[in-house]
Write a structure and sequence with these properties.
9-stranded antiparallel sheet; 49 helices
C-alpha cells in the first residue's frame, strides 16, 4: 500500500509540474541534461530502505509488479511548466518576490473606489510589463529544455522484449527498472545498470566518463563476479537472480548491494559493477546489463542541479535599502494623510472641500485621512523601483557576456575560456577578502615528473634526468593542441549508432557471439563516423616532459646485474640474490603494477593491449610447451599464438623460463585458490585487441648476451605504449619503471603482465585491489608472485601513512630486522630531503602472506563486500587488517612544477589586500617550499609551525605564538577587534607565516580554539595548511566565512576540492588534468590560476562598481521623481492628485529613464584593464564596499531630495501668479526632471561611448515624441482634464526652455562641484588611476613608477624576484634558513651545511662530487 501511495504521489507531482527537487534549475546544454552537472547542491542521500530489483520477465511478473513496477521509468522531464500550468505556476513563482507582491497589492488597492488614485488599468501597467518580460524569458528557457528532453527521451537503445524473446529497439523513455539492455561500442548508457556481460574475454568494459565528470581517460568496469566466467552471453530468460541495493542517491563514487541467486548465494556489488547513465561504451563490442536506477533516480540526474543561484552581498544590501525606501514611503504617506485630515478639519463647514456622500453623510477628517493614506501609497508607489530587479538581471547577463568574451581568458592548449556557471554573483568577484587555494593542479601544473628515488636506503639523484628537464623545451604542435582538447560527448549522444567501433577478429571469440553487432557497428571510415574514431585522442598525462625519464647511471648499473641466473637453482655455487637486488626488483614491480593504469596500443590509444605472456618467451622443445600449458591450466582458452598454428621462434633455451613454469605449475589446493578461481587468468591478445601484430613473438637475437631479448618490429615497443592513468602520479611512476625496462605490458581484472628487463614477461595473478582513498592515503595490490608463487601485498601511499604500518623491529632482533631499521631511517632522511626540495613523496612497501593468512582475510573481506549497511567502515577495517607489518622498499620524489604566472598572480592578489591560504594534502616541507616558490611566503617572513597532536598542546603553542606576534607588532588586532583586524591586515611590522599540519588543524577547528586560531591567523601574512583532508578544507573555509563575516573564494581543480568550493561565497574550478568535478561544482571556471588575477582585479572591480552605482542611481531617480508629486501635495490640500498625466507618470520610470542605467551597468569602465592589473591596490575599494556604503545610500537620497526641491520650486515660482493649468505646470517639471536625471548619470559616468550617447539621446527623443503624439491625440484620455496640445504650446514658449535649463543647472550644481573638488583636491586611488589613463605612454610609465615607489617603500619585491630568477638559473639551494625554495636541478646533498646520508664510500663520493660541482656556481 505504501508503494502505491508513493507511486500516486509521484505521478501527481509529475502531472502538476515536475519533481520538487530543483529540476527547474537544470542547465540547458544537451550533454549536461543527459548526464549530471557534476555537482550536488546537497549532501549525498543516505540509503534508507533498500531497493529490490527483479528481472522484467514473465516468470517474475508478480514479484516485478510488487517491486520494480513502483519505481520510476527512464523518461526525464527537466521542464518546469506545461501548457496547462504555465500561467498559474509562473505567476505563483514570480509572486514569491516581495516587490511583485507589493505592486500586486497596489494594483488591487487601486480598484477600491474610496482610495482610487489612477485609472485602474494604468496602475496595473508596470506590474503587467515586468511579469510579462520575465514570463517570456522563463517560457523560452523552458521550451528549450523541453526540446532537449524530447530529443533525449526518444533516443533508441536495445531492450530485451519478453514477448519477442529478443532485443528490440526501444526509446530511452520506455526503459524501466529490471529491463535487460544491450549496448554496443560508442553508445551512451541510457540508465544506471549492473554489468552482467561483456564481449571482452576478461569480463571488463571500458567506459568514458567525460560527459559525467569531464575525465577523458578510460575507466574499467567489471562484470559481476560469477558471470565473467561464462562462455556465452547471459540469457535473460535463464536469469533467475534478483538484486538488492541501496536506495537511489547522488553519490557517484558509491554503489552498495548484492546479487542473490536462486540458491540464496550472494555476490557483492560495488561501483565497479555499475554503468552510469551518460557514460559512453568504448573499446568493447557489446555489453549487457540490468537496469537498477532509471530516469530521475539515476545518479546522473540526482546530481543534476544545474546553474548555481546565490544571493550576492550587494543584492542583500540592496534589499535592505528597499526596506528603508518602504519606510520612507510610509512616512511620506502618513504625512499626506495627516495633512489631508488637517486640511479638511480647517474647511469642515465648507462643502466645496468636503463633499458629502450621495446619502448626505459627510466623511469625518480622520476617516478621510485614513483613506488618503492608501491613496498616497498608490500615488507614490514608484518610490519602490519595480524595474530595478529586472534591470539587475539584464545587467548581470551583459556582464557575464563580456567576461566570457574576454580573449585574455582563452587557453589555446585546453581550447577553453572562462565559464560563468553562477548567473547572479558577478559583483561578488570585486569584494573578495580571503582566498583559499589548493596546491596540486591549482598552483602547480599537475604534470608529475619523476625526479629522485630511494631504494633500500640508497638515494639515486637522477642527475641526467634533471639536466634533461632543465634544457627541455616542450613543443606542442597544432595537432597536439587539437588532440589535447577535451571532446564533447554530444556527438556520440545524438547518434547512438555512431559507426566508430572497430571490430577486429584476429583471434577466436569462443562461443561469445558477435552476430548481434552486425546492425550496430558499421564499417570504419563510412560517413561522419570515421571522424569519431577515438584513436586520435591523446592519453592523459602523457606529455613528453612526463614520459621521457632518463635513468640514474648507478641504479641502472645495479639493475643490469639482475639476470635469470640469480633465480636458477641449477647451479649450486651461485649464492642467493643480494637483499638490495630483491628490493630493487620489488620496488620497480610495485611502481609498474600498483596502480589502475590501462595499457593502450601505440597507434590507437583507445584500444586495449592484450599481450600474450608467451610472446616474449623463446620456446624450443615440446617439453617446455607442455610446461607452459600446465602453467596456463587455469585459463579459459589457449594463447592465440598457439591456437593460430604459428610455430614458435627458435632460440636459446632459457633456464629461467623453466623456473617460471615450475613455479606456475605448483597449484595449491587451499581456500585461497578456491576463492581466487573467480579471478583466474584469461587469454590475452584476444579478438578485441586493435594491434594486428600483438601476438607475434619477440625473436631472440643470437648476437645478444644470454638473458637479453631483442624487441622485434611486430611487438609494440615499450616507448610507444600509451598508459591511461586516472592520476598523474600513477602515470609518472609507470613511466619511471618503464625507463628501467620494467614495462607494464597489459592489465586485465585477473592478471598483470610486466616485461622485466632480462627476466622477460612476468605474469602476476591479480587477487585483490584495495583502491586509494583519502582516509587510508594509500592503495594496495594483492598478487600471486610468479617467481615465488607467494601471495604478496604491494602498497603505495603517503609516507605519513606507510611509515606507521611498517613492521616494528627490536634493536636486539635479527640482522634482517636491524637492516630494515637502517633502511627506514635512511629513507626517512631522504623523504625529508625530497620534501625540502618541493617534491611530492610516496613510499613503497610490500608484505608476504601465507595462503592460510590470505584465505582467512579473504573470507572476512567477502563479508564486508557483500554488506549494504556500513560497508565503508567494514571495508576500512578489512584493509587495516591487510595493510600492516609492511616491509619498506623505498620512496619516490616527484616534481610538480608551478603553473606559468602563479607567483606574479599571488603577489598581485596580496597587494590587492586579499589574504591567501594554501590548503594542501602534501607534506609540511613540500608545502612550505611551494609557498616560497609561488611568493605566498617571502624570504624575510618569520615562520611559525603549528604541529601538535593534542588540543592542550595546540592551545599552548598558539598562545605562545600569539604573544610573540603581538609583542613585536603592537598594531595586531585584539580580541575585541578580531573582524576588523582580519579584514584590514597590517602592512607594517613583522611579516609572519603560519604553517599548520592536519592533526593540529583538527585540534584548532574544535569549538574552544576556533577564535584563538582565527586571531593567530589575523597576525600572519599567509597561512599554509598541509596534510589537510577535503573535509578539513571545507571546515576551514566555513569557519572563516561564518565567524569573520568576510567574502571568501575557494579555488581548486580536483574532486577533493569540491566541498571547499561549494562552501565558499565564490567557488572557482580549474579545468585541469583531474577531470571536471571541480568545474561542475563551481560558480566560475578558468583554465589556469593566473586568470584568477584578471577575473578579480579587472572584471570583479568593474562588475561591483557598475552594479553598485546602478543600484544607487535607481534609488536616486525614483526618489527624485516621486518627491515632485509629494511636494505638489502641499499645494493641493493633500488630495492625492497629480500635476502630470498618469500615462507619463507611469512610463517615466518604466520606459524613458530605464535604458541609460542598464547600459551604464554593462559598459561602464572607471579604470582601464591595464591600469587595474598594474595597480592591484585599486581592488581594496571593492573590499571595503566604498561604492555602496550605507552613508553613500543616504547621501544619494539627500541629493535626490534636494534636486526634487529645485525641480519643483523653480518652475513653481516661475509660473506663480499666472493662469497656467495643472498639466501645463506639470509638463516643465517632467521635462526638467528628465534632463536632471539623465545628466546626473552623465556626471557619474567615467567612460562615455557612442552607445551611451545613443541611448541617452534615444531616451530624450522618445520622451518628446510620446509627449507630442500623446498631446495631439489624447483629447479625452483622462477626463475631466487632458494633456491636449500642452507640449506643442510649451515648445513655442521661450520661458519653458529657460525653466528647463535653469532648473537642470541649479539641481546638478552641487553634485558637479563635489565631483570636481573630489577629483582635484582629495582624489581617491581610483580617481588617481583614472588620471593615469589619460596620460601618454611615457608619462604613464613615470607615473606608475612613482606610484609603486610610494606604495612599496621599505619592501623589496623586485629584489626578491631578481634573487629568485638568479637562483633558478644557478640551480643551487641558497638563501636564508627560513626560505626553503624549490630547486630546479637538485643535488644529492640535503642542504648546505647539513650532513648527507652516506651509504657506501663509492655512493657517497659519487653523490658529493656531483653536488659540489653544482653548488660551486651558487657560491660565487
Amino acid at each position: 500500500m505504501t508503494e502505491c501511495l508513493q507511486w500516486a504521489r509521484y505521478r501527481w507531482q509529475w502531472l502538476m509540474g515536475g519533481r520538487n527537487r530543483g529540476e527547474d534549475e537544470r542547465p540547458y546544454s544537451y550533454s549536461s541534461l543527459l548526464v549530471c552537472g557534476g555537482r550536488s547542491s546537497r549532501t549525498p542521500k543516505l540509503a534508507g530502505k533498500h531497493r529490490v530489483v527483479v528481472p522484467h520477465l514473465w516468470p517474475f511478473k508478480d514479484e516485478y509488479e510488487k517491486y520494480s513496477g513502483t519505481y520510476m521509468n527512464n523518461r526525464i522531464r527537466t521542464t518546469k511548466y506545461t501548457l496547462l500550468n504555465f500561467v498559474p505556476r509562473n505567476l505563483f513563482e514570480q509572486f514569491h518576490r516581495a516587490a511583485n507582491l507589493y505592486f500586486l497589492f497596489l494594483a488591487v488597492l487601486n480598484w477600491v473606489p474610496l482610495v482610487e488614485a489612477f485609472q485602474k488599468e494604468i496602475t496595473m501597467l508596470p506590474l503587467v510589463v515586468v511579469l510579462t518580460i520575465i514570463a517570456i524569458k522563463d517560457g523560452l528557457e523552458d521550451y528549450r529544455k523541453y526540446k532537449i528532453d524530447k530529443q533525449i527521451n526518444n533516443l533508441v537503445t536495445k531492450v530485451y522484449s519478453r514477448k519477442e524473446k529478443k532485443y528490440v529497439d526501444q526509446c530511452w523513455k520506455d526503459v524501466a527498472v529490471g529491463d535487460f539492455i544491450r549496448l554496443s561500442c560508442n553508445e551512451v548508457i541510457p540508465a544506471d545498470m549492473v554489468l552482467l556481460f561483456s564481449t571482452d574475454p576478461d569480463g571488463i568494459c571500458h567506459i568514458e566518463t567525460s560527459g559525467l565528470d569531464g575525465e577523458s581517460n578510460l575507466k574499467q568496469r567489471q562484470v559481476v563476479r560469477g558471470y565473467a566466467e561464462q562462455d556465452s552471453e547471459v540469457d535473460p530468460e535463464k536469469f533467475s537472480s534478483k538484486i538488492e541495493c541501496e536506495s537511489p542517491n547522488n553519490d557517484l563514487n558509491r554503489f552498495r548491494g548484492y546479487l542473490e541467486h536462486s540458491n540464496k548465494e550472494r555476490v557483492g556489488l560495488s561501483k565497479e559493477n555499475l554503468l552510469l547513465r551518460g557514460c559512453t561504451i568504448r573499446n568493447t563490442e557489446a555489453v549487457v546489463g540490468i537496469v537498477v536506477y532509471a530516469g530521475h533516480e539515476t545518479k546522473a540526474m540526482l546530481n543534476n542541479s544545474g546553474p548555481r543561484y546565490k544571493r550576492s552581498k550587494l543584492e542583500r544590501r540592496a534589499n535592505t535599502d528597499v526596506l528603508w525606501c518602504v519606510l520612507l514611503l510610509v512616512v511620506m504617506c502618513l504625512t499626506g494623510a495627516l495633512g489631508h485630515g488637517i486640511w479638511l478639519s480647517r474647511y469642515e463647514s465648507m462643502m466645496f472641500f468636503n463633499i458629502p456622500e450621495p446619502d448626505g453623510h459627510v466623511i469625518s477628517p480622520v476617516l478621510a485621512g485614513f483613506y488618503m493614506f492608501w491613496t498616497m501609497i498608490i500615488l507614490l508607489q514608484v518610490l519602490i523601483p519595480i524595474s530595478l530587479y529586472v534591470s539587475i538581471e539584464i545587467v548581470k547577463l551583459g556582464q557575464i557576456y563580456f567576461i566570457q568574451s574576454d580573449v585574455d581568458f582563452y587557453n589555446e592548449k585546453m581550447d577553453s575560456t572562462v565559464q560563468c556557471r553562477a548567473l547572479n554573483i558577478t559583483e561578488d568577484l570585486g569584494q573578495i577578502q580571503y582566498l583559499f587555494s589548493d596546491k596540486t593542479g591549482t598552483l602547480t601544473e599537475n604534470k608529475m615528473v619523476f625526479r629522485r628515488c630511494s631504494v633500500a636506503g640508497f638515494d639515486y639523484c637522477h642527475e641526467e634526468n634533471a639536466k634533461r628537464l632543465e634544457s627541455y623545451q616542450e613543443a606542442v604542435s597544432e595537432d597536439e593542441d587539437s588532440t589535447d582538447t577535451p571532446s564533447d560527448s554530444l556527438s556520440n549522444v545524438v547518434k547512438p549508432r555512431a559507426p566508430s567501433c572497430q571490430r577486429v577478429h584476429n583471434g577466436p571469440l569462443g562461443s561469445k557471439s558477435s552476430n548481434h553487432l552486425a546492425g550496430n557497428c558499421l564499417a570504419l571510415g563510412s560517413g561522419e563516423g570515421a571522424s569519431e574514431v577515438p584513436h586520435s585522442r591523446q592519453a592523459a598525462f602523457s606529455s613528453p616532459i612526463e614520459t621521457d625519464v632518463v635513468p640514474d647511471t648507478r641504479l641502472l648499473d645495479k639493475f643490469n646485474q639482475i639476470t635469470p641466473h640469480l633465480f636458477t637453482p641449477l647451479d649450486e655455487t651461485i649464492p642467493d640474490p643480494p637483499l638490495e637486488t630483491l628490493y630493487i626488483i620489488d620496488f620497480f614491480i610495485a611502481l609498474a603494477i600498483c596502480n589502475t593504469v590501462v595499457v593502450s596500443a601505440p597507434n590507437q590509444p583507445r584500444q586495449k593491449i592484450g599481450l600474450s605472456s608467451l610472446s616474449g618467451i623463446p620456446i624450443k622443445s615440446l617439453e617446455e610447451i607442455k610446461n607452459l600449458f600446465q602453467r596456463l591450466s587455469v585459463r579459459r582458452s589457449s594463447s592465440p599464438s598457439l591456437a593460430s598454428g604459428k610455430e614458435p621462434s627458435p632460440g636459446v633455451p632459457n633456464a629461467f623460463v623453466s623456473r617460471l613454469s615450475l613455479f606456475s605449475r605448483m597449484k595449491l589446493a587451499s581456500p585461497v585458490e578456491e576463492e581466487a578461481s573467480h579471478m583466474s587468468e584469461s587469454p590475452q591478445g584476444s579478438s578485441n585487441s586493435s594491434c594486428p601484430t600483438e601476438t607475434e613473438q619477440r625473436n631472440r637475437d643470437p648476437g645478444l648476451p644470454e638473458g637479453e631479448v631483442a624487441p622485434s618490429s611486430g611487438q609494440p615497443l615499450a616507448s610507444t605504449l600509451c598508459y591511461e592513468a586516472e592520476s598523474p602520479d600513477e602515470a609518472a611512476l609507470v613511466y619511471a619503471a618503464r625507463a628501467y625496462q620494467c614495462t607494464l605490458r597489459s592489465r586485465t581484472p585477473e592478471q598483470v603482465v610486466v616485461d622485466f628487463a632480462a627476466l622477460g614477461p612476468l605474469t602476476f595473478q591479480l587477487l585483490h585491489i584495495l583502491p586509494f582513498d583519502s582516509v587510508r592515503k594509500r592503495m594496495s595490490l594483492v598478487v600471486r608472485h610468479p617467481l615465488s608463487n607467494q601471495v604478496v601485498v604491494y602498497t603505495k601511499g603517503a609516507d605519513s601513512a606507510i611509515m606507521e604500518l611498517l613492521s616494528v623491529a627490536s634493536p636486539d632482533g635479527a640482522s634482517l630486522e636491524k637492516q630494515q631499521m637502517i633502511i627506514r631511517e635512511k629513507t626517512q632522511k631522504h623523504l625529508d630531503d625530497y620534501a625540502r626540495r618541493g617534491l611530492r613523496t610516496l613510499c613503497i612497501a610490500k608484505k608476504v602472506m601465507s595462503n592460510t593468512e590470505y584465505a582467512e582475510w579473504l573470507r572476512n573481506h567477502f563479508l564486508a563486500e557483500t554488506s549494504i549497511d556500513h560497508r565503508e567502515e567494514l571495508l576500512l577495517e578489512s584493509a587495516m587488517r591487510l595493510e600492516n607489518k609492511l616491509t619498506l622498499l623505498g620512496a619516490t620524489g616527484i616534481e610538480d612544477r608551478l603553473q606559468e604566472g602563479v607567483p606574479e598572480s599571488i603577489e598581485a592578489l596580496q597587494k590587492a589586500g586579499i589574504k591567501i591560504w594554501m590548503l594542501t594534502g602534501d607534506k609540511q616541507e613540500t608545502a612550505i617550499n611551494v609557498a616560497y616558490a609561488c611568493k605566498l611566503l617571502e624570504p624575510g617572513d618569520k615562520l611559525f609551525i603549528l604541529n601538535t597532536q593534542s588540543k592542550d598542546a595546540c592551545e599552548t603553542l598558539m598562545s605562545t605564538i600569539l604573544k610573540e606576534l603581538q609583542g613585536k607588532n603592537p598594531a595586531s588586532p585584539e580580541r575585541a577587534s578580531l573582524r576588523e583586524g582580519l579584514q584590514h591586515p597590517q602592512d607594517c611590522g613583522l611579516r609572519a607565516g603560519l604553517i599548520i599540519t592536519g592533526k593540529a588543524l583538527q585540534c584548532a577547528l574544535q569549538e574552544g580554539l576556533q577564535r584563538q586560531f582565527l586571531e593567530l591567523t589575523a597576525c600572519c601574512q599567509a597561512v599554509v595548511c598541509c596534510q589537510a583532508t577535503p573535509l578539513q578544507k571545507s571546515e576551514v573555509v566555513k569557519l572563516v566565512r561564518s565567524h569573520l563575516q568576510v567574502m571568501t573564494l575557494a579555488i581548486g581543480d580536483g574532486a577533493n576540492d569540491v566541498s571547499m568550493i561549494q562552501v565558499a561565497d565564490i567557488g572557482i574550478g580549474i579545468s585541469g588534468q583531474e577531470g571536471m568535478q571541480a568545474v561542475m561544482a563551481s560558480d566560475f571556471a578558468v583554465a589556469q590560476f593566473k586568470h584568477l588575477g584578471r577575473l578579480l582585479l579587472v572584471h570583479g572591480h568593474w562588475c561591483y562598481t557598475r552594479l553598485s552605482n546602478m543600484i544607487l542611481y535607481f534609488f536616486y531617480k525614483n526618489v527624485a521623481y516621486v518627491n515632485l508629486l509629494f511636494w505638489y501635495q502641499f499645494f493641493c490640500g493633500f488630495s492625492g492628485t497629480s500635476m502630470t498625466d498618469y500615462w507619463v507618470l507611469i512610463l517615466f520610470n518604466l520606459l524613458f529613464t530605464s535604458a541609460p542605467p542598464v547600459i551604464y551597468g554593462v559598459l561602464e569602465k572607471d579604470v582601464s584593464a591595464e591600469t587595474l592589473m598594474q595597480l592591484p591596490e585599486l581592488y581594496k575599494a571593492g573590499q571595503k564596499s566604498e561604492a555602496y556604503l550605507p552613508l553613500t545610500f543616504w547621501i544619494t537620497l539627500l541629493d535626490a531630495f534636494y534636486q526634487s526641491l529645485v525641480c519643483f520650486f523653480v518652475p513653481y515660482y516661475t509660473y506663480q501668479g499666472s493662469d497656467i493649468d495643472i498639466f501645463a505646470f506639470g509638463n516643465p517639471l517632467n521635462t526638467a526632471a528628465l534632463f536632471i536625471i539623465i545628466l546626473h548619470l552623465v556626471i557619474e559616468s567615467k567612460s562615455l561611448t557612442w552607445i551611451h550617447m545613443l541611448v541617452i539621446a534615444g531616451s530624450i527623443l522618445s520622451y518628446f515624441f510620446f509627449a507630442l503624439v500623446f498631446g495631439a491625440m489624447c483629447v479625452t484620455c483622462n477626463p475631466p482634464s487632458n494633456p491636449y496640445w500642452i507640449m506643442q504650446e510649451h515648445m513655442l514658449d521661450p520661458v519653458f526652455y529657460l525653466v528647463c535649463v535653469l532648473t537642470t543647472c541649479v539641481a546638478l550644481l552641487p553634485r558637479f562641484t563635489y565631483r570636481v573638488l573630489q577629483g582635484s583636491l582629495f582624489p581617491s586611488p581610483v580617481r588617481r588611476a583614472q588620471h593615469l589613463d589619460r596620460l601618454t605612454a611615457e608619462e604613464r610609465t613615470d607615473a606608475l613608477k612613482k606610484w609603486r615607489g610610494a606604495g612599496t617603500a621599505g619592501r623589496v619585491p623586485s629584489k626578491y624576484a631578481e634573487h629568485s630568477a638568479a637562483k633558478a638559473k644557478r640551480g643551487a639551494p641558497s638563501g636564508p634558513p627560513t626560505a626553503l625554495t624549490v630547486v630546479s636541478a637538485p643535488s644529492c646533498a640535503v642542504e648546505q651545511g647539513s650532513s648527507s646520508v652516506r651509504e657506501t664510500a663509492l655512493d657517497s663520493d659519487f653523490c658529493e662530487t656531483k653536488a659540489s660541482g653544482m653548488a660551486r656556481p651558487s657560491e660565487g
